[in-house]
Design brief:
Blueprint lengths: L16 H11 L8 E2 H12 L2 E2 L9 H9 E2 L3 H10 L3 E5 L3 E5 L3 H13 L12
Parallel strand pairs: 1-3
Antiparallel strand pairs: 2-5, 4-5
């Protein structure tokens, strides 16, 4: 059997802070501003980000609504609620916090769900403190 060699070629590239900033804003769908529209925009945001944290507290709007409002022109909260609950495109999933995940990604995260169901309860205190 022959030895297999792996050659890694490192190429030095130089990019400016402005290019990095622009790339990150485009990746997060913030540039160009409010390019997305209505329900198709909600779908595109979840296809790109893959997960949004759902914050049940509402001091100035829920987290999901604030994120979508920053990315979608003429956004209304009903545009979001129809996507996971009526069209059944999303699922609520607990991953250290309650999150909304596209239903097609459930296959990728279901092992976490089953592990949580089969785990033993955590003992918070030793017998000394009980």
């Amino acid at each position: 059997m022959r030895n297999k060699f792996c050659y890694i070629l490192f190429v030095k590239i130089t990019i400016s802070k402005q290019q990095v900033s622009r790339f990150l804003l485009q990746k997060q769908l913030l540039l160009p501003p409010k390019l997305l529209v209505e329900k198709s925009g909600v779908e595109r945001v979840f296809q790109t980000l893959r997960l949004l944290q759902f914050d049940p507290l509402n001091p100035c709007g829920q987290n999901v609504e604030l994120v979508l409002q920053a990315k979608i022109a003429d956004y209304h909260s009903c545009d979001y609620y129809t996507w996971p609950y009526q069209e059944k495109q999303g699922i609520e999933f607990y991953n250290k916090a309650l999150c909304i995940v596209p239903i097609k990604d459930y296959q990728l995260i279901r092992h976490k769900h089953h592990a949580a169901e089969n785990s033993k309860p955590i003992k918070l205190f030793s017998k000394k403190y009980q």
